[in-house]
Amino acid sequence: MFENVSDEQLLIFENIIDGFNPEYVVENLKKIPEIEGYSSTANGCLYKNDSHGFLTSLMEKLFNDRIKYKKLMLESQQRYEQSKSKEDENLVARYKNFQMAKKIQLNSLYGALSNQWFRWFNFDNAESITTSGQITIIYIANKMNEYMNKICKTKDVDYVIASDTDSIYVTFEKLIPANSDELEAVKLIDQFCEKKIQPYLDFCYDELAGMMNAYQQKMQMKRETIANKGIWRGKKMYILNAWNVEGVQYDKPKLKIQGIEAVRSSTPHACRVKIKEALSLIMNGSELDLQTFVTNFRNEFMNLPFEDVAFPRGVKGMTKYAGKREIYIKGTPIHVKGALMFNSLLKINNIKTIPPIQDGDKIKFAYLKEPNPIGDTVIATPDELPKEFKLDKYIDREMQFSKSFVEPLRSITEVIDWEVEQRATLEDFFG
Q1: Pair 275, 176 in one domain
Q2: Backbone dihedral region of 120: left (phi > 0), alpha (psi from -120 to 50 degrees) or beta?
Q3: pLDDT band (50, 70, 90) for residue 47
Q4: Which of 23, 254, 272, 325 has the fewest Cβ atoms surrounding its Cβ within 10 A?
Q5: Cα 228 from chain centroid?
Q6: What is the pTM of this model?
Q7: Do 41 and 212 touch, CB atoms closer than 8 A?
């Protein structure tokens, strides 16, 4: 089978197999031998390419189903942007769930391949998928930089500002006329991607499929988001100020958030909408605008009732963490500690109209300022804080505000060297 393969080609295969290096593979793609009847993967494995296997047939069906539902989702979303009808809004949600279900199924099948208890488990199969995925994204990033340097008449400029598993993020700033407004710039980029970038990407992946002697060319990279600003906090953790997402054009930019859980299910009710408003200010306002917004919300937050500023949680381990002599044992999670304290206060105050907290209940908890009447740092309740406890004035709203609102924002603003709140300096003092 290897009789027509040169020594140089065999050496490349050996280097790939002995220690996979994605950059090395990309540099030597054109030298990888085309062995008739076989496809090669990035880690040096070979697969027969004269027929479709069971798993690939299954994945193709799931993949085609996902494309169908995603197309219906985008069509519904485009209609909704124009009509704002409830029917179109419901269709967007429906097709989004359908396509996400197919995506999860596809990802699960890869996970199963690397599970030793799976019927068709094989480490080489799992590694082939992972390494080939790395190659495809590094390859297309390199090709995009080559193309952009050529049309911008630059040399060795890195136009790919970020990449992840299946995406690259490219700046087209040099191609936009200086006097263009946002909507004009978006339109120009959209047309450029459709007429120039998309055909080029298709050509590059056809070329890559040929180098690997693939059974079929299945790599399809489409233009997704056009944004005028972006903040990356880490891999797969970013915020984009999106004007157009997969062909759906917005009159005003919308935030696209990936991997940054600024608003979680555990975020207090009062902070959820305000955090999103603050993120929009980060993208479309100034540092001073953000600081003013935070100051105003702080003043509002300090006067809100317990149930609006407390952290929502589900509680488990009430029996496990309950002490025999003390209320709770050492190492009790903070929210469970607050729940056990709540049950204790019900007994102390002889309150029988409110049921005690049990495992599986939804609760809200907040930190307490010290000293306080119960001599502890936390209290939890199923809903409102009972007046009999006389604890409202001891709720540490400063800490609640910091943990639930300021800290999530600061994790983002520190990337762009902004301050969430104004700080007094010696210059201010002497000025």
Answers
A1: no
A2: alpha
A3: confident
A4: 325
A5: 19
A6: 0.74
A7: yes
